[in-house]
Write a structure and sequence with these properties.
The protein starts with a helix and ends in a 7-residue tail after the last helix. By secondary structure, it is α+β, with helices and mostly antiparallel strands. A three-stranded antiparallel sheet has the order 1-2-3. It contains three helices and three strands.
Amino acid sequence: MDVVAIMEALAGQGVTVLVKADAERMAERRKPWTFVASGAPLREDVLVRTDAASVEQCLAECLPRLRELGISFPE
């Protein structure tokens, strides 16, 4: 899975994407990765967000939700 290609495809459609690694949560062995997608073409009240143990887990949870909302991106 090419994370950069996915993020570029989302941004190209007007979706703002944030992927974050939290050092404090990592040190505490909590879910350190956060994925957030918002903005057009999503409705103003829609925010696709999750915290997970890895980037891959974030994407596994959020990408299907984005597809359901009509957003397309590479497999």
